[in-house]
Amino acid sequence: MQRLEGKVAIVTGGARGMGESTVRLFVEHGARVVIGDIAEDAGTALADELGDAAVFCPMDVTREADWEAAVAAAQAMGPLNVLVNNAGIVHMASILDTSREDFMRVVEVNQLSTFLGVKAVINPMKAAGGGSIINISSIDGLHSCAGLGAYSASKWAVRGFTKAAAIELGQYGIRVNSVHPGGIFTEMGGRGVVSEEDLNNSLYKDFPIPRTGQPEEVAYVTLFLATDEASYSTGSEFVADGGWFAGMRRPGMPCS
Fold first, then answer.
1. Domain boundaries, the chain
2. What's the rounded Cα separation, in Å, for the pair 62 and 71?
3. Do 245 and 25 form a contact (C-beta atoms < 8 A)?
4. How much helix, strand and coil, in percent to the nearest 5, is found in the chain?
5. Which residue in the list 151, 172, 220, 232 is annotated as catalytic?
6. In sequence order, what DSSP letters do the residues of 173-236 get, joined into one string?
7. C or N: which end of the chain has fewer Cβ atoms within 10 Å?
8. Pairing mode, if any, of strands 237-240 and 80-85?
9. Residues in contact with 27: Cβ distance below 8 Å, sequence separation at least 6, in sequence order
10. CA dihedral 186, 189, 191, 195 (to 10 degrees)
11. pLDDT tens digits for 176-211?
């Protein structure tokens, strides 16, 4: 069953990682997709592989002109129904070692881009009769940890902005939800630096689901929110974190 038949979507950061998995899954389920990314080689290759169902749009998500180009590319495919604000970066450092420039770079890519994306698709989605906006936050938008001051601040902001947008846009048939991945095995999550086995045996061994997550496991959550199956869900957080937010199994405790 093609759950997104006839829908047109924009996926930012769509050339690699969770974005790529989302693009592939959307196309598999019948959507036509604009892949927005600064990674031109990877984005072009993915679009070429997927054929007429996808087009690559070079995109710096902090630039309003690039959002206008992405929306135009989407509308050339049909009425715009879905936006996935997936593009993001992480900066790992103590607060003392984080410069103003470091902090603002994370804010612009993670937080400002979400605002620009939502703003850019409101009128097209109104014209389409409604739509679904999915903002990719993080488990660090629900709690935090040392060394992620800038990243966590931006992802909490995405979560809060999602609720404000949901309240404002629901009257137009536009749903807005946030997705909160935990540790996912992408380049940002350690792929290419450490093996998946080593991660599972160290960082994730005490998780309720004792392993790192895969990009497609988040993409399936995003897929649900993009479909009409999620028609009464808005302003909510959808978590895919292996139980991280629930808590850990502690050595020495019963059932551990």
1. 8-240
2. 14
3. no
4. 45, 15, 40
5. 151
6. TEEEEEEEE-SBSSTTTTTTTS-HHHHHHTTTTTSSS-S-B-HHHHHHHHHHHHSGGGTT--S-
7. N
8. unpaired
9. 33, 50, 53, 54
10. -130
11. 999 999 989 887 656 766 778 867 767 788 888 889
Residue for token digits 């028609």? 231
In angstroms, rounded to a whole number, what is the distance separating the alpha carbons of residues 181 and 23? 17
Q: How many CA atoms lie within 13 A of 10 on its CB side?
A: 33
- Write the CA distances from 180 to 132, 158, 170, 243, integer angstroms: 16, 10, 21, 12
What is d(CA 196, CA 2) in angstroms, rounded to the nearest whole number?
32
The CATH fold of domain 8-240 = Rossmann fold (3.40.50)
What single letter denotes the amino acid at residue 249? R
Q: What is the pLDDT of residues 41-86, one digit of tens each?
A: 999 999 999 999 999 999 999 999 999 999 999 999 999 999 999 9
Give me the phi and psi of 238, to 5 degrees please: -120, 120
Look up 204 and say whether it is catalytic: no
User: And the tokens for 47?
Assistant: 């679009």
Which pTM was predicted?
Answer: 0.94
Q: What angle do CA 175, 176, 182 make, to 5 degrees?
A: 135
